[in-house]
């Protein structure tokens, strides 16, 4: 497959030297186009592609750094750190809820 729709700096783009963790990324050359959806991708194809991408992530030596990056930015698209965009939204929502609970005044 051709080039990815964008080449994130964190995965080997022009600013990769600012993110040294990325040099070990298993997806540096995503020739199969696993990590970002093509336009108008049917749901079944998306699910299959994301599972394939996650299998690459599972053996990636920088999975945790990548996941942290994607959650911190946050990256809105693609599979990062073994998580889809929807899964990252769930993680971030849980974190927000947790943080809000920590800020609640103690009743009584
Ligand atoms: S964890 Fe996945 S998306 Fe992140 S750098 Fe590794 S292979 Fe790429």
Structural features:
single chain, 108 residues, mainly alpha, disordered N terminus, binds iron/sulfur cluster
Write a brief structural summary.
It is built from three helices and no strands. The protein is mainly alpha-helical and 108 residues long.
Molecular structure report:
- The protein is mainly α and 108 residues long.
- It has one domain (9-103).
- It is 42% helix and 0% strand.
- The structure holds iron/sulfur cluster (SF4).
- The site of iron/sulfur cluster has 15 residues, from helix 1 and helix 2.
The main sheet comes to:
none
Q: Return the structural class.
A: mainly alpha
Cα radius of gyration in angstroms: 16 Å
State the low-pLDDT regions, or none.
1-7
What percentage of residues falls in helices of 4 or more residues?
40-55%
Q: What sort of overall outline do the alpha carbons produce when their principal axes are compared?
A: globular
Mean of all residue-level pLDDT scores: 85
Structurally, how many domains make up the residues? 1
Distance between the termini: 62 Å
SSE order = HHH
- Secondary structure tally, helices: 3
How much of the polypeptide forms β-strand, as a percent range? under 5%
Bound molecules: iron/sulfur cluster
Oligomer: single chain
Count the E strands: 0
SSE layout:
Elements: H1 43-58, H2 63-72, H3 85-103
The chain binds iron/sulfur cluster.
């Amino acid at each position: 497959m051709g080039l990815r729709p964008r080449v994130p700096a964190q995965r080997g783009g022009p600013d990769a030297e600012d993110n040294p963790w990325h040099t070990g990324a298993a997806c540096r050359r995503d020739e199969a186009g696993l990590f970002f959806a093509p336009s108008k991708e049917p749901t079944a194809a998306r699910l299959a592609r994301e599972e394939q991408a996650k299998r690459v992530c599972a053996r990636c030596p920088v999975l945790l750094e990548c996941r942290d990056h994607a959650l911190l930015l946050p990256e809105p698209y693609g599979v990062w750190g073994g998580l889809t965009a929807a899964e990252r939204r769930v993680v971030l929502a849980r974190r927000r809820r947790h943080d809000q609970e920590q800020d609640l005044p103690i009743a009584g």
